[in-house]
Amino acid sequence: MSAQLTDLITAIARKARDASYALSVAPTASKNTAIDALGELLLRDSDRILEANHKDLVAAKEAGLSMAQIDRLTLNPVRITKLAQSVKEVALLPDPVGEVLETWTQPNGLKFEKISVPIGVIAVIFEARPNVTIDCAVLCLKSGNAAVLRGGKEIFNTNKVFADLIAEAFKSVPGIPHDAVQLIPTTDRAALTILLKQNNLIHCVIPRGGESLIRFVAENSTIPVIKHYNGVCFVYCDKSADLAMAKSIAVNAKTHRPGVCNAAEQLLVHKDSAEILLPEIAAALVDKSVELRCDKASAAILAKKGIKHKLAQASDFTTEFLDLVIAVRVVDSIQEAITIINRDSSGHTDTIVTASELDARLFQLKVDSAVVLWNASTRFNDGFEFGYGAEIGISTDRLHARGPVGLKQLCSHKFLVTGQGQIRA
What we know:
- By secondary structure, the protein is of the alpha/beta class.
- The protein folds into two domains: 3-226 and 405-418, Aldehyde Dehydrogenase, Chain A, domain 1 (3-Layer(aba) Sandwich), CATH 3.40.605; 233-380, Aldehyde Dehydrogenase, Chain A, domain 2 (3-Layer(aba) Sandwich).
- It is built from 14 helices and 16 strands.
- Strands 10-9-11-8-7-12-13 form a seven-stranded parallel sheet, with helices on both faces.
- α1 crosses α8.
- It is globular, with a radius of gyration of 24 Å.
C-alpha cells in the first residue's frame, strides 16, 4: 500500500467527517431540494449515463459475467426513470433526524428526551448494481449522514457519472456540504483495506455484493458492519396451499429477478399436497427456463409427469444460485419445513403459502429470519415495498438493524437531559 493511496483515502474520510457535522443539523428543506435536484439531473443526463453504462456492459461481457450479473449492471431509459422517481420519493419521506422517540421525567426533576440522530459517516462498499450509488447518496443525505461510496470495477464508468451528478446537485443547495457524498476514485483493492481501518472517522460500513466481498469486509473492518452474507431464501408450500397462488408466488420469487438477494433459491412442498402442487409449480418454473434440482421424493413425482429435472447434490440445498436454478424438496410436516429453513437458510427472507392462519403464524413466529411472509413472494423484502423509499441494503444482523435498511435504520439516537441545577448526591 502506497503512502499516497493511504493519504487519499484518509483525506476523503476526514472530509466526510467534517461534512457530517453540518449535515446533522441541515434543514429538511435543504436536504429535499438537493435530492429533488439530483432526480432532475438523472433525467437530464440520461444519455450520458447510458453511454457510460454501455462501456461497463461491454467490459462485463468481455469478462465473462453471467446474464444475471449483467442484468444487475444494466441501466436503460425505463430503469433511469424509475431511479429518478425513487430519488424524488425519498424527498417526500419524513425526515427522521430530530424525531423525539421518548420523553420522561425522573423523580429528581431531570427531564429526558431520546431523539433520533444520524450515525455520522457511513461507508458503503458495493459491486455490480449502479442504482446503489444513487440510493445510498439520497438516503444518507436525508438521514443526515455523510457517505463514502466504494463501487466495484464492473460499474466504474457509470459511477463516475453518478458521482458528478451528485456533486452538481448538492453544490447547488446552500447548507449542503460539498463533501456530503464522495466516491472512492479507484478500484484498487488496497484502497478498500485502507478504508476499512478508518474507524476514527467512519462510524458504519455497509457492504453490498457477493458473499466473498461481504466476508472480506466483515473480517477486515475495524468499523462496525451492517451486512448479510447471502440470500438463501425459501418458499414453503403447505398442505393447504392454494394451487394457483403457490404457483404464482414460486414463479415470481424465483424468476422476477433471479440475480438478487431476495429471489427464492429453495422450494419446499408438504408431502400431503406434493402430488398436486409440485407438478404444476415445476412445469411453470421449467416454462420460465428454471433448472430444478430435486431430492429423491420430488424427483419421483416429477418423473411420473415427465417434467425435466436433475437430482440435487447436498450442496444445492444451501446454495444461493443467483440464477435460474432452484432446489426442490418434499417435507413431511410444517415443523420439518421450519427446521430445514432454520438450518439451511441464510436468515434473509422466507415465505409460507397456506390457507391456514394457524400454520402461517406458527411458521412466521418460529422461522428465524429477518423477514417472514405469508402468501406473498420473497421479492417483497425490499425497502421500497416496505414503504421506506429506496433502501441502502438488507440486514440479517441482529443488532441495530434487521431487514431493509431505510432512513430510520440509518439513524442512531442520543439523550438530551434538562435540569435545574441538580447534582448527584
